[in-house]
Each structure stands twice: as C-alpha cells, then as structure tokens.
Amino acid sequence: MTASNEWGRVDADGTVYVRTATGERAVGSWHAGKPEDGLAHFARRYDDLATEVSLLESRLASGAGDPKSTLTHVTALQGSLGEAAVVGDLAELETRLAALHTAAQAKQDQAGVVRAAARASAAAAKEKLVLEAEELSQSSQWKAAGDRFRTIVDEWKAIRGVDRKADEQLWKRFAAARDAFTRRRGSHFAALDEQRGVARARKEELVAEAEALAGSTEWGPTASRLKSLMTEWKGAGRASKEAEEQLWTRFRAAQDAFFAARAATFSERDAEQLANQQAKEALIGEAEALDPAADLRGAQARLRDIQERYDAVGHVPRDAIRTLDNRMRAAEQRIRDAGDAEWKRGKPESNPLLDQLRDTVAKAEAQLAKARSGGNASKIAEAEAAVTARREWLAEAERSVRR
After folding, report:
1. Does residue 29 contact residue 16 with C-beta atoms inside 8 Å?
2. Residue range 378-395, pLDDT digits in tens
3. For position 401, what pLDDT does the model report?
4. HEC string for 268-284
5. For 176-207, b where at least 16 C-beta lie within 10 A, e where not — what string?
6. Which pTM was predicted?
7. With contact defined as beta carbons under 8 Å apart, do 303 and 342 qualify?
8. C-alpha distances in angstroms, 58 versus 62, 103, 341?
C-alpha cells in the first residue's frame, strides 16, 4: 500500500519521501502501521520544526529574542534543513529562515551600532569627569574640591560600557589629577599647621605678658600697653581652633581683670575727689562769710585757719580746680585788702616789706593753681608747701609791724 499528499509520500516498501524543488528526498521509513499514519507522523515533525521557526520569529519581533542567539539557531536550522526527516513545505521554511536570518542580522547590526554609541557616550561621560578632575586639581577650595572628587568616583562607577583599554587610560588621568590635588592640599595644610604653630607661640607670649600686667596699678602706661597687645594679637595670625579659644579666654580674662580694677579705683578716686570738692566749697563758704569790717584781726586769724584746712584737703576733680582756687583767692584778697586799708589809715606810708611778701604769696598761689590744673602730684605738693611757707612769712611780718 502507498500514501501521498502535496508534500510527500510513502511507497509500498515503507520508504517516506518529501518533495522539494530539486526532487524527492527520502526522509525515513514507516513499518509500524498504515502508510497514512507514517505520512502524518513525519508531517507532525515538520509542524514541530515550523513551530520552532515561528517561536524564533515572534521572539525576535517582540525584542525578547537575542539577535546573536537567533542567528546561531537559524544558521543551525538552515544547515539541517536539507537533511530534516520531515514532510512539509520545506521551501517555505527555507524562505522563512532566510528572512529570519536577515532580520536577526539587521537587529544584531543595529544592536552593535547602539552598543558602539553607548560605549562612545560612556567614554565621553568619563572624559568629561576627567576634564573636571584635571581642573579641580588646581583648586584651592579644599573641602568643596575634595568632596567633589569623592562624588566623581561614585559617578565613575555608575558609568559602564567603556572599552577596558580606554577605561584604563581615562582612569589614569583621573587618578593623576586627584593625586595632584591631594599633594597640593597636603602641602597647604602642612604650611598652615606651621603658621598656626608660630601664631600659637606668639600668642602665648602675648597672653603671658597680659597676665603679668593684670595686677598693675600703673593705670595709664598699662592700659596703653594692653591696647598695643591687642593690636599685636590681631596681627599674629590664627592658631588652631582649640588653642585659639583657650588663649583668647586667658588673654581676655587678663585684660578684664586689669580694666575692672582700674574702673574700681577710678570710681573710688572720683568719689573721694568729689567729697574733697564739697569740703573745699564748704571752707570757701566760711572764708567768704568772714566780715573784716566787724573784726579784722579775728577775720585774718580765721582766714589763716581756713587756708590751712583748705590746703590739707586732697585732690578735687580737675575741671573744678580753677573755679575753687579763684573763689578762695577772691576771699583771701578781700581780707587782705581790708588789712591794707586799715594799715594805710593808721600809717600814711606803706611798708615795702609787706608789699613784697604779699606779692610773693600771690605768685605762690598762682603757681599752686597752675600745678593743680596740671595734675602732677609732686608739683602740687611742692607748690602747696611754698604757699604755706610764704603765708607764714607774711603773717609773721604783719604781726611784727603791728607791734
């Protein structure tokens, strides 16, 4: 018995043939049953082969299939098609496989172009990072540049697809730029540490001097020197943060101790001088209240007592010295003028000695007023002693004349 269809046949001896464009080709034999069953068996094997081709087509079209793998599979199928033990339209399969081969090759070529573009893009991205790193290598923004170098490394790792050789060359350039920056930064901070050490040593000297001056009572010279120390402090540069804070705390404490003591002393002195001013004003009031017309001798005696007490009073505020002395001299002159008038009434001729002594007293009083205005303690004491002595001479001369 025989069986046949459009694509093949089974002859009487059970040989199975497939029809091709070049003629029939034996693909196997069938003895297990009816010839029709054998033909159907080999037709199913053809269907399996066609299904495999369809699967390759759909996967390639959807993008799920790898073009290179598809090409390998298609090439293998094409090579085995001439010996395939199947019955079916082999010409159609050959045409589909050829088309599939062309499509896979095109997609592989396209993928190659995409990969090449991706490699070029990745290389360009790393080249850009290298150029940035080379520019940063000359930066003096140490923290910002150092932070950026670290983020460049992270960005570098995220860029993939660069050829190994090109990647190695780019990395060498980046590493060289980073190393150059690191060396410059190290040199900078080494120099800065040295400068800070010099600044610290100088400021320790300034602190030691300020602490030595903290207990001084030479108010003017010490205040002037402390101000100079502050100027020198500002010009000494900065030590490390911790040392700077500690030294500044000590330096400031020494200054504060001196100026607080000076302020307390000046406050006490001001209070004392104000009390002295009030005491002198009270004595001047007593002198101004004397009435030489009622009792000249008593007024003169009381005036001498007032003058002694007036001169014994300590310093007064500088701006009050002239006013107080002018008032006191006016009160003294009033008593002196009364005495002169009485003398002239009692003796028509004046006494040259008394006139000379009175002039001497007036000059001594003028010198005392000048010394008090100047504020020099030694000159004031000297002038006060001179006034006291000359007043005593005048008083003794006046008593001798009256006797």
Report:
1. yes
2. 878 888 888 888 788 777
3. 63
4. HHHHHHHHHHHHHHHHH
5. ebbeebeebbeeeeeeeeeebeebbebbbebb
6. 0.45
7. no
8. 6, 12, 147
